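Reminder to self: tokens first, then the designed residues, so the page reads top to bottom the way the pipeline ran.
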């Protein structure tokens, strides 16, 4: 049994001065897309993270063409993720001699490319429920309360 080795090309940008949370929003748009399509998406994305991710994507394509003799337009983004980097901590003067802490987050952006024929199939989107299926369950009416039972008057005085 011969195993087919999957050739994967990657590029990493470390210590990028972006919030990882903001960069992850952009990376989600290119995961699973072909390189030309991912470049188009990034070109029309107005977030600042798109410029940095575009640089990493072009670096990964250059690595594939120079080191592995692959054609850049025949590649697919198999994985793209953003990890947290170190956080620079600074201080800002505030009123009455106090100080406020400023966090300057960094992130590490990774993009992995594979050939089109070897790309993993993207998972199908979750099925959307029809509006009829989203009805709220009806509540059962509360049981009627019985009036407290009156104690029978004891037999007439004995």
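Designed residues (158 positions):
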């Amino acid at each position: 049994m011969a195993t087919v080795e999957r050739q994967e090309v990657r590029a990493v940008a470390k210590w990028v001065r972006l919030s990882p949370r903001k960069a992850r929003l952009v990376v989600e748009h290119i995961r699973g897309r072909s390189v030309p399509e991912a470049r188009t998406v990034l070109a029309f994305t107005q977030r600042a993270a798109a410029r940095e991710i575009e640089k990493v994507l072009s670096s990964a394509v250059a690595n594939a063409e120079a080191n592995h003799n692959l054609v850049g337009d025949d590649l697919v983004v198999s994985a793209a993720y953003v990890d947290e980097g170190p956080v620079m901590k600074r201080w800002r003067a505030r009123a009455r001699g106090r100080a406020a802490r400023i966090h300057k987050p960094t992130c590490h952006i990774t993009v992995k490319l594979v050939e089109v024929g070897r790309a993993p199939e993207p998972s199908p989107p979750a099925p959307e429920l029809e509006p009829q299926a989203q009805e709220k369950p009806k509540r059962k009416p509360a049981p009627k309360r019985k009036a407290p039972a009156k104690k029978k008057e004891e037999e007439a005085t004995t």
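The radius of gyration is 30 Å.
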